[in-house]
Amino acid sequence: xxxxxxxxxxxxxxxxxxxxxxxxxxxxxxxxxxxxxxxxxxxxxxxxxxxxxxxxxxxxxxxxxxxxxxxxxxxxxxxxxxxxxxxxxxxxxxxxxxxxxxxxxxxxxxxxxxxxxxxxxxxxxxxxxxxxxxxxxxxxxxxxxxxxxxxxxxxxxxxxxxxxxxxxxxxxxxxxxxxxxxxxxxxxxxxxxxxxxxxxxxxxxxxxxxxxxxxxxxxxxxxxxxxxxxxxxxxxxxxxxxxxxxxxxxxxxxxxxxxxxxxxxxxxxxxxxxxxxxxxxxxxxxxxxxxxxxxxxxxxxxxxxxxxxxxxxxxxxxxxxxxxxxxxxxxxxxxxxxxxxxxxxxxxxxxxxxxxxxxxxxxxxxxxxxxxxxxxxxxxxxxxxxxxxxxxxxxxxxxxxxxxxxx
Length: 407
Known about the structure:
Layout: H1 12-16, H2 19-28, E1 31-35, E2 41-45, H3 48-56, E3 60-61, H4 70-74, H5 97-106, H6 111-115, H7 118-132, E4 137-139, H8 140-145, H9 147-157, H10 164-175, H11 185-210, H12 216-221, H13 232-245, H14 248-263, H15 265-273, H16 278-289, E5 298-300, E6 304-306, E7 309-311, E8 316-319, H17 321-324, H18 359-376, E9 381-382, E10 404-406
Parallel strand pairs: 2-8
Antiparallel strand pairs: 1-2, 3-5, 4-10, 5-8, 6-7, 9-10
Helix pairs in contact: 7-9, 7-18, 10-11, 14-16, 14-18, 16-18
């Protein structure tokens, strides 16, 4: 498997079809040491049971500083200060900070409150497709898959919906960075986007301090759980995380899921004839396309052995969700799309304490968006050749740049 060292796992070319490589890793090297694009060494863990174990195992920590000695921490590379506020988010926090931060926003994402958004999501989908129906086709991402979830999370936070393209442009640049990129030329190029995003959030927070509203940003500004308020950096990181995580992965679910259905016309026809299958269909699309391909970084808090391979304390471990969701040990015919698959214990939303807080919202958005699209445009088909589709650069997320469709 030495050729993996030369692979850029974040490249558009790799993201076009990473699954044969994952299959080979599962068979030959289920815990594989590789070099990431910015010369950072990482362990790729690819089998379902091992990935599930890492996601739930407290021996793997999110904060690398907690896994290293003070002497080792002193040898860590310098990171530009502009990135530091964004690192104070609950996705990268260990206990007890993780529970404290999650408790501040958990109430906004209960299934009951998410269900109240159903009509709003349906209206957004219909409005976007009303605008497209007089044309010959639609660029699914910019005209549909992006505006719907971006507007919903903007509504929840209280961010102007017309700013969605702006924050998506910034977040796209930031989420494409791989571990270690902050100190590279790629990281330096992302600094304007990071700085613009932080300035934007600061302005939103200042407005709420003087003019509180009934939205999540106001709730965060006023946040107090057991007498513990958010710090300024935590406030920035939480706003950033909610805006980015609140739409980036759902964009990929809607677009990649639609492409998967177009590539499996018998499955698409089954769903069109029986829209009540949309819930298991979206679960299968989450498994099959895995919008989050790799779980965010974890570090071994102590020496750990996985699949007879020793991982040393402080080393970077990447749990490959996209591979786990195609593991033949867990799923029958894993490379086949089956919208009636049962059971379907995919790991698309993670597991353990970092299980995706927005899973109920992402599921609902995916279900409504895909069913509405198929109902409104039953003759939907690709407007370009499959080979011409380009995938976005990124290590953690996998999604298309554009998806031109015709009616």
